[in-house]
Every structure is written in C-alpha cells, then in structure tokens.
Design brief:
Shape: globular
Structural class: alpha/beta
Helix content: 25-40%
Largest sheet: 10 strands, mixed
CATH class of the largest domain: Alpha Beta
CATH architecture of the largest domain: Alpha-Beta Barrel
Number of domains: 2
Length: 402
C-alpha cells in the first residue's frame, strides 16, 4: 500500500486549519490535522516543502517506521512546527490503516477501555455573574465538567473571556491584540469566583480552571491552596512548565490537582513532571505532540505514575484532531477527561464527522479510521486569513506570558 500523493489543505471556516491528505495506490486516503494556532503556514510549509516529497513511495502501513523516519531523520528534533507536521502524517496513516481494515481507529489501538469519553467545556464571562450564567448554560447543554474563567476587576481583558458562547476563539486577524495583567489582582479575585460557583451549583459539577502559565511557582501554590475549599477537578497550567522542577514547590503547598501539557511537544517536555508525580493530568494533544504514536508513549509513561490524560481540545484543533483524540481517549487505560469546545457550523460543514456529544460525554463513532472527512470544494471557499494569538503585558508594560 504505497503512498502516491499527499497535499496540504489550508482553510478558514471561521478560523484557520491545516489538514494533510495522504493518498495511496489503493485509492484509500487518510487525513491528519496540522494546525498550530497563529503559526499555521509555518507547519503548512514544513509539510509541503520538506515532508510530502519524502512520503511518496513509502508503505502507508509502516506507521512506526515512518514516525521514526520523520523524527530521527530530520536531525532537528522536537518543537511545535516539526511535531505538528509529524502528527499530521501519523494521524493520516492511522486513518488509512483503519479504513483499509474497515475498523474504527480505537479498535486498532487495543479496543475500548471504557464505553464513553467524559468531556469538559469552557464557560466564561466578563464578571462573576456572567460566568455563573455561562456555567448554567453549559449544565443545561449537558456538560458534567466545566472550566470556568472570568474577567478580573480592574483589568480590561484577560485569558478565557473571548468570542463565542460554546467555543472560545482568542485569535485576532492582522495584528496580535495586547492584554494587561496583574497577578496580584488575579490571586485576590479568583477564590471569590469559585466560592460563588459552589454556592450556586453545589458540589456536584466538576469545575476546572486555567491559569494559563501566568504565575510564579509560589504564587501558583498560594492560588492552589486558596482554591482547596472548592475542590476543583484541576488547576491548569499554573506556571510555565519549561522549568519542570518548579512544580515541586507548588506540589508541597497544595492538594489542588494540577494539569499541564498543551504546549508540550514531546515526552521529554513532561518527563520530570510525570516521573516525580508533580502533576495529576497530562494535557498533550494529538496534533502538537507528534500524533497518536507519540501520545501513546506519553500516556504509557504517565500510567506508571498514576497520572491521567486530559488532552487539549480547543477550537484551534480541527475536527480531524478531535476525532483522533476521541479514539485515543476511548482506548487508553489512564484516561482522565477530554477538552471539547464545539466548532462553528461552518467548520462542521467542511469537516463532516462521526463523533457525537450527548449528556456531557462523547464517542468517536464506528466509521472506519478516524471517522472525519473534509469537503475540499467547500474548504476552498474559506481562504486562509492571517491571525495572531494575543500578547500580554504587566501593568508596568513588561512582557508576560499570555
């Protein structure tokens, strides 16, 4: 089953997506997501200029060998652009294998470890009461787990409050928007948000929160301790994970569960975090961490140390990635939860899919392969539009993590 062609499809049905389509001599094709938010064309170029020529003539069934060929053979290993490109190839080959065997992808990964996949959504508001209303909307829609974000008094904008009610889109066309940040204002405010949410909704719903890499380790420890009375499902990305050992300090001071990893690109980016049990959930995504082949390695390492998965699943990942993630989630033993933000109607039309959401849980469906397709004719009607994620500055003007 030789690969005879591959092409990169870039489209913007509400936001930019990069999709790799790999074709075989048997007429079977597979899809892989290669979207890197704000840097989409860098991955598209990496694929078109460097990777696609290497695929022609290769056996599409040799998934592991192709992964190693693209990873070890490039010499310049890891990084978000390289790993997103490899992920697209990897997902496309798994899609091809599933279709050629007439089996859904999760069956190729060892079969189902559970019946369904628990997912969480993203509720936000410009203030506490607006966030309360948003959480109520998510509950009404069936979500059992909800990440809650709110604007902070005195700050004109902050992470987590963006366009859309059942999705969150922070990227802006043409130029990066600038946010202002005060760790002090945030740390004083955030416990009041979750006190209000627990008063309103009680102990039943799983509540999550994303700090988005903005605190120092000791600041994160303080926030985690202050949130303990509200028993969060997790506190996400409390501090940049580049210095993995910094989580030792956080771990010493709080029992609030910690989730990290959406910006991790390889097992080496989270090795210390997992092996020292400094986190509870690893959030690496199919597209940004080298595909299903590499994500399984991360999950296998995490299982040894009782760390569960919680893969990134915002709308900057296409339905192709969401479908692949759900197959992974259904199969992996140490699954924890899956992020799921609903795509726009335009996106769903371009990417028809078999996966379904109902009552806060999901299933990838039983179609062969990943179970997601692309309408290329419709995709062509949504050309690429340059867009950037925001940048963030402290109140004194110092650049800070967004």
């Amino acid at each position: 089953m030789k690969i005879v062609d591959a092409k990169v499809i870039v489209c913007c049905p509400g936001r930019n997506f990069v999709t790799l389509k790999v074709m075989t001599e048997d007429g079977v094709y597979g899809l892989g997501d290669a979207t890197l938010n704000g840097r989409e064309l860098a991955v598209a170029s990496y694929l078109s200029d460097h990777v696609v020529p290497l695929l022609i003539g290769r056996d599409a069934r040799r998934i592991e060998d192709t992964w190693q060929y693209l990873y070890k053979g490039a010499y310049w290993q890891r990084g978000p652009v390289t790993m997103s490109a490899i992920a697209a190839v990897d997902a496309a080959l798994w899609d091809i294998k599933g279709k050629s065997l007439n089996a859904p992808l999760y069956q190729l990964l060892g079969g189902a470890s559970r019946e369904t996949v628990l997912v969480y959504g993203h509720a936000s508001g410009v203030g506490i009461e607006e966030t309360v209303q948003a959480v109520a909307q998510y509950q009404k829609a069936g979500y059992k787990a909800i990440r809650a974000q709110s604007g902070i008094p005195g700050l004109p904008s902050t992470y987590g409050v963006g366009r859309g009610s059942f999705y969150y889109e922070p990227a802006e066309k043409n130029a990066p928007p600038q946010s202002r940040w005060s760790s002090e204002a945030y740390m004083n405010f955030i416990p009041t948000l979750f006190a209000r949410l627990r008063k309103e909704f009680g102990p039943e719903p799983h509540l999550l929160h994303d700090v988005h890499h903005r605190l120092t380790p000791i600041e994160a420890a303080r926030v985690g301790k202050s949130l303990e009375p509200y028993h969060l499902f997790w506190m996400e990305d409390p501090t940049p994970a580049e210095l993995q050992e910094s989580f030792r300090l956080i771990r010493r001071h709080t029992t609030t569960p910690l989730a990290v990893g959406e910006v991790c690109n390889s097992i080496f980016d989270c090795q210390t975090l997992i092996q020292e049990q400094l986190i509870d959930y690893i959030r690496t995504a199919v597209v940004h961490s080298g595909g299903i082949t590499h994500l399984r390695r991360i999950a296998n390492l995490a299982e040894i140390y009782q760390v569960r998965t919680g893969s990134h699943g915002a709308t900057d990942l296409s339905p192709v990635c969401m479908g692949a993630a759900l197959h992974f989630d259904l199969s992996v033993h140490n699954f924890g939860i899956q992020e799921y933000m609903k795509h726009t109607d335009e996106t769903n039309a371009v990417f028809p899919h078999a996966y379904q959401f109902e009552h806060g849980i999901m299933h990838p469906g039983e179609k062969p392969g990943i179970g997601v397709d692309i309408n290329e004719e419709l995709a062509a009607k949504y050309p690429y539009q340059r867009a950037y994620l925001p940048v963030n500055r402290r109140l004194d003007g110092t650049m800070h993590n967004w």
